[in-house]
Please model this.
Amino acid sequence: MNFIQIQEALEKKKGNVAVRGWIYRIRKLKDKIFIVLRDSSEIIQCVIKNEEMIKVADKLLMESSLEIEGEIYSEPRAPTKYEIDVKKLIVVHASEDFPINKDQSPEFLADNRHLWLRSRKMTSILKIRSTVLEAMREHWRKKGFYEYHSPMFMGMQAEGGSTLFKVDYYGKPVYLSQTWQLHAEPAIFALEKIFTIQPAFRAEKSKTSRHLSELWMAEMEAAWEGFEYLQDDAEEMIKHVVKKVLADNKDELKILERDISKLEPVLKKKFPRMTYDDSLKILAKHDMKLEWGKDLRTFEEDKLSELYDTPIIITKYPKVVKAFYMREDPKNSKVVLGFDVIAPEHYGEIVGASERETDIKKLKKNLEEQGEDPKKYEFYFDTRRYGSVPHGGYGAGVERIISWICGLDNIKDAIAFPRTMTRWTP
Model:
């Protein structure tokens, strides 16, 4: 048999087809058996009327793997409006009783994640995830960026010592990477424009629906570019990702029951840009007063996100709440040339960015104020000693972007096997 995917069979609409996959649903009657078969592309109803095949199919359970050949035709009552009259049935593997049904708890599904991946929900999310990653690569490739990777084992912190994962490295203490950045910046003096999509690790003791301990970051770094360029590029990247998902994943968004009208403004409007000071004024008008110098919490970000139907860009945060490598604003030493992109619909920060500080004295002072030993960063200071240039970059949380685009209740569903403070298996 020349097998085709179920989606191809649906597009063929009539004639003889051969498909293979797994039993998604099965309904057994006296004189026929209905099997809804699934593969990675779609589902299709198959009807078995032959007496001998009914005997075989009657013993089958959900998730049994099959090869089916038969006649496809229109059937408005079927889940995908077409049905296959089965002429040949081969059981590749008769499944045991599948443990997952419609009424399982979230905790049970997490314990059986290796099986829950087969659900239409998770399959749809993972397809969208693949599109998101492809779109990110497309965006930077078109701009002449090179893909580049940094090490996962680090001898120092980059995003604050409180979220470091300490590991044993041949008897020596090192840390899992929080970001590619410290080892990415040296590469811009060779490649000028680089990006990565790779894991990052944050030991945040948080059990919220927005946090993962192992996450994926899409990060870029560019020589010669400044603050405005970074904001423009972040906006363009997000727009390209959303545009591609809306074009390529209509069926998956429908399965997820995502209201795409909430995504469409992203393509039509320019993202609002405001300073941290502006955001405090806006919050004050809505009876939410925040002391200057405090970072925006989830509470404040959510309120701001309610006021706009696109992501918003908040710039020039206080220096005291940002990383040591962010460049001081030449016009105001209390703030940095950094920004966050806040997603609408209460999905929080999806991008963090800045120009990079090039003054070694300021970098050392910032590290000392954070309790870090500047001697660990000599390789990093070398990038400022030999032909330093203005540069900057940003990191985008892949799972946060996927959560927002898919309209997920929990970021854990944006990745195949989530790792959190309380979850490290399966």
Observations:
- The longest strand covers residues 15-28.
